[in-house]
Structure formats: structure tokens, C-alpha cells
From TrEMBL:
<dbReference type="InterPro" id="IPR005630">
    <property type="entry name" value="Terpene_synthase_metal-bd"/>
</dbReference>
<keyword id="KW-0460">Magnesium</keyword>
<dbReference type="GO" id="GO:0000287">
    <property type="term" value="F:magnesium ion binding"/>
</dbReference>
<feature type="domain" description="Terpene synthase metal-binding">
    <location>
        <begin position="6"/>
        <end position="236"/>
    </location>
</feature>
<dbReference type="InterPro" id="IPR008949">
    <property type="entry name" value="Isoprenoid_synthase_dom_sf"/>
</dbReference>
<dbReference type="InterPro" id="IPR050148">
    <property type="entry name" value="Terpene_synthase-like"/>
</dbReference>
<protein>
    <submittedName>
        <fullName>S-(+)-linalool synthase chloroplastic</fullName>
    </submittedName>
</protein>
<dbReference type="GO" id="GO:0010333">
    <property type="term" value="F:terpene synthase activity"/>
</dbReference>
<dbReference type="GO" id="GO:0016114">
    <property type="term" value="P:terpenoid biosynthetic process"/>
</dbReference>
<keyword id="KW-0456">Lyase</keyword>
<dbReference type="Pfam" id="PF03936">
    <property type="entry name" value="Terpene_synth_C"/>
</dbReference>
<keyword id="KW-0479">Metal-binding</keyword>
Amino acid sequence: MPQGTLPCYECRVLKWYMWSMTALQGSSFSRFRVEMTKIISLVYVVDDIFDFVGTLEELSLFTEAVKMWDTVAADSLPSYMRSCYNALYTITNEIAEMAEKKHGLNSINHLRKAWATLFDGFMVEARWLAIDQVPTAEDYLRNGVVTSGVPLTFVHIFTLMGCEQSIEALIDQMPSVISCPAKILRLQDDMGSAKDEAQEGFDGSYRDFYLKENPRCNRNDAEAHMRSLIAREWEELNRECLYTRTFSSNCTRVCLNTARMIGVMYSYNKEQRLLVLEDYAKMLIL
């Protein structure tokens, strides 16, 4: 894997918690916000391990260890991966225990499956990069929904909230109330906002792959197309929230609030600052 400059995690902590602050509003969800922040931070760390640090062989071992879900399986991993794995394993088990105490359901196997699905998605991107394979824009976006980390995060939060629908169905079928925010986030991120995280575009973006498929289009054409896709996902999400209502109002509100926050999280100025987010954080916290 190409080596890059690792992002400044101190600059990300506020961002991680602001996702939770806006997605889960209300004093009754205080503990859930803490757990959601932990999951979001782990997604970022795992993403960076795949993007910047691990070799393909190491990443494959990392993925297999997650699927085995046993701390012994992590013994052969490099120390930095082992530390990440132990944190992932501990936090996920703690969330499963919290949900079991509150709702009487043992969901650890579903949470394990959600992590395995995320790691498989990252492995797809790693293999594309390793063999210089150029996926279609559609294939990239389909996999990007998974690697956005949105489905995984929602599975953990819905577990804590006692979502009445089968958690396994959320992973296998991924209803639109989950896939729409994930697509919106992936497309918004790929319109150039990843530069804040010191990424060099090693694993490509929807815009890059769209331009390869449509050589007569320029960057502005590609981004106009991406904005039209985002608008389409918003229409679908609004239909889900207003009419279909697959989940309880609390769970649906988490998805809607997350989607609303995406524009704030990626509204960088020329100095790569998130002034809107900074103002929003002051309003909520101070």
C-alpha cells in the first residue's frame, strides 16, 4: 500500500462527536452518543490502516481476525493492528452487553457480521488498488456505501435503541433509510472534501471513475452528476421518513439527522476549515 501522511486525529475528535450530537438528540441518549462516537472513531482508524499503513497481506490477516472474533486471532497481527483490534473487540462486546441488559437480546453475532462486512468492503478497495483495477463508478459506489461506515454505525446504534426489526436484515438488505445517508456521505466526500484528512486519493473516488467512463465530461460535469445523485437519494430518504417508516420514529430520526449533518461536515472553505461546523459546535456545546 502507498504510504501517506497520517491525518491529525486531534482535529477529528470534535467531528466524531458532532456526528453523535446531531444524530442522537436529547438527554436520554447521552450514553448512546458516547458509544456512537467510539464506533465512528474506530471506523476512521480502520479506514486509515487500510489506506495508509497495512500491506495487502497484513490487511487480509486483519480481516480474517475480525471474522474469527477471538483475541487470540489477533496475536499474529502487527502491534498497531492488534491495538485497534482489541479496542474494536472490547467496545463492540460492551455495546452488545448493554443492549442485552436493556432489551434482553443477544446481538453480538449481528455486530460481528457488520464489522466483517465493513472489512470485506475495505478489502475490495485494497485489492482494486493492489492490482491497479479500475472499477466502474457504479461498483465503486455500491462498495462505498459499505465502506462509508454508515451502515455499521447504524447497526450498533439501532441495537442499543432496541430496534424492532431484525438487525441481520439491516446488514443483508440495507433498507433505503440506511443506504441513502451512506450514498449521500460517500458522494459528498468524493467531491473533493477528503483533502482535509491528508488523503492522496489512492483508492480513487466516484468522480474519478465517472470521468474515466465519460471522457467527454469535465470535473464540473461529473460533480453536477454527483449532485443529481445526492438529490435523488434525498428524495428516497424523504419518502422513507414520511410514508414508508420501516423503523420506529427514533431510529428513523437518527438516519435523517445524520444525512442532514453531511453538508455541514463537508463544507470546507479555502483554508480547509469547517467554519459552519465550528459555529454549530459552539451553539450546541457552549
